[in-house]
Design goal:
Largest sheet: 8 strands, parallel
Order of helices and strands: EEEHEHEHEHEHEHEHHEHH
Radius of gyration: 18 Å
Number of helices: 10
CATH class: Alpha Beta
Shape: globular
Bound molecules: NADP nicotinamide-adenine-dinucleotide phosphate
Number of domains: 1
CATH superfamily: NADP-dependent oxidoreductase domain
Helix content: 25-40%
Strand content: 15-25%
Length: about 270
């Protein structure tokens, strides 16, 4: 496994996404993922599975210190005080003393960002989070948080894959020195049958999904967190470190449509304005 290193944080390049996994099946899959070599687990308060993930963390033979755990604070807990209490609840569910990187799940313009960032920084200062970051932040939100409020963030977790390449946001993130954690790196399954990716994979004995993940992790500062309920998928998504894309492959991917957003809930910010 290789890592992205940012401001003292060391993020394993492939993480295990857990959105949509719950209960005993989630515990079993997270344990399985750790058994086969995943060392980065992505959960969130909103997924309702921190408890199931916590069971896996408690049961696994892998040392807690070797696992990079991400959770995300839901927008209803962005007020000072509420945020810290919600993190205490997450820690109890996750059966851990600290989160490796604690994220704000979505921007929430109804609460002053300065207040939320102060509370987030207080959690880090208490040792309950090693690092802090954000998710679904636009260029404008990043500028307000970092240039405006001096937030010391390590990453922004956003939708990013071969059909949603985030070129403008990435340029802004490079300026801020942030890691990009690519969520829905398989376009929630839509990339698994993509013909160009499949043709590239054919030359290396890899699937379209593996090419999609390889394309992400070959880029500076990029981490991918595919979700897999099927064990074969979980294995395949780790098996991407024994081949490399060439310039022709990258050109073919760059020629695909690059702005096909899959995740766009009602509470999303105005992506294009920002
Ligand atoms: N911060 C945010 O707002 C946010 C939003 C969305 C997601 N996320 C995070 O990102 C993670 C991943 O995103 P996602 O769950 O939306 O979608 P994804 O990882 O892009 O796609 C998951 C889908 O792809 C399938 N799949 C996985 N590996 C495969 C393979 N090797 N071959 C063929 N199919 C494969 C899975 O099938 P099976 O499950 O049947 O194996 C599932 O249907 C989430 O679990 C979550 O942790 C964060």
């Amino acid at each position: 496994m290789s890592f992205v290193e940012v401001k003292g944080a060391r993020l394993p390049r492939i993480g295990f996404g857990t959105s949509g996994l719950a209960g005993a099946a989630c515990t079993r899959l997270v344990r399985f993922a750790l058994d086969i070599g995943y060392r980065h687990i992505d959960t969130a308060q909103a997924y309702g599975n921190e408890d199931a993930v916590g069971r896996a963390l408690a049961e696994t033979a892998v040392a807690r210190a070797d696992i990079f755990v991400t959770t995300k604070i839901w927008t209803s807990a962005f007020r000072d005080g509420a945020l810290q209490r919600s993190v205490d609840e997450s820690l109890a569910r996750l059966r851990t003393a600290y989160i490796d990187v604690l994220l704000l799940h979505w921007p929430n313009d109804a609460v002053p960002l300065a207040e939320t960032l102060r509370a987030l920084a207080a959690v880090r200062a208490s040792g309950k989070a090693r690092h802090i970051g954000v998710s679904n932040f636009t260029i404008r939100h990043l500028a307000v948080a970092i240039d405006g409020h001096g937030a010391d963030l390590v990453c922004n977790q956003v939708e990013c894959h071969a059909l949603m390449r985030q070129e403008k946001l990435r340029a802004a993130m490079r300026r801020h020195g942030l890691a990009l954690v690519a969520y829905s790196p398989l376009g929630r399954g839509q990339l698994t049958g993509e013909r160009t990716l499949g043709a590239i994979g054919g030359r290396y004995g890899k699937s379209a999904s593996q090419v999609a993940l390889r394309w992400l992790v070959e880029q500076d500062g990029v981490v991918a967190i595919p979700k897999a309920a099927k064990e074969a998928h979980a294995r395949a998504n780790l098996d991407i470190f024994d081949f490399a894309l060439d310039d022709d492959d990258r050109r073919a991917i760059a020629a695909l449509p690059g702005n096909r957003r899959v995740i766009d809930p009602g509470w999303a910010p105005d992506w294009d304005r920002d």
